[in-house]
Amino acid sequence: LSSVPLQILFFLNVVYFVFYFLATLLMIIYKSQVLSYPDGNLAVDLVLLFIMIFVEAIRLYLGSKGNLREEKVPMGISLALTCGSVMLSVYFLVWQTYVLRADIIINAILLIIYCLESVLDIIAIAAFAR
């Protein structure tokens, strides 16, 4: 009953998130050098990026293991953590101190991945509930 498309999407999310993290970190460094950050905003952006790493790691681990073991609880926790990841991604898309076009593109791709994962998560949880 485990979902192969969901497992593939989890793997692609791991690969994409490594790119996303490095690109976002480099853009924050670039923006801090070229633009003047208001006091404390640079620290907030960096702290939220590092929080996003931990949330994403836990979310992907629980989602992947829950899918492979066909367990509803880890899948449900992963789905709930997806909401937190979406909020962090929206922060970097909308509320970040400076938003570049590259920020918009990489966050839009990440949000699309989250939407696809959420749909497949719900379908997998429903299949496991039978």
Topology (SSEs and partners):
Elements: H1 4-34, H2 41-69, H3 72-95, H4 101-128
Question: Can you characterise this structure?
Answer:
The chain has helices at residues 4-34, 41-69, 72-95, 101-128. The mean pLDDT is 96. The radius of gyration is 16 Å and the shape is elongated. The protein is mostly helical. The N and C termini lie close together (10 Å).
SS strand fraction: under 5%
Q: Distance between termini?
A: 10 Å
Mean pLDDT across every amino acid position = 96
Residue share in helix? over 70%
Low confidence ranges: none
Number of strands: 0
Structural class: mainly alpha
Radius of gyration: 16 Å
Major sheet: size, sense and barrel closure? Answer: none
| Number of continuous helical runs | 4
List the secondary-structure elements in sequence, H or E: HHHH
What is the approximate shape? Answer: elongated
Quick summary:
The chain is mainly α.
Which descriptors would you attach to this protein?
130 residues, mainly alpha
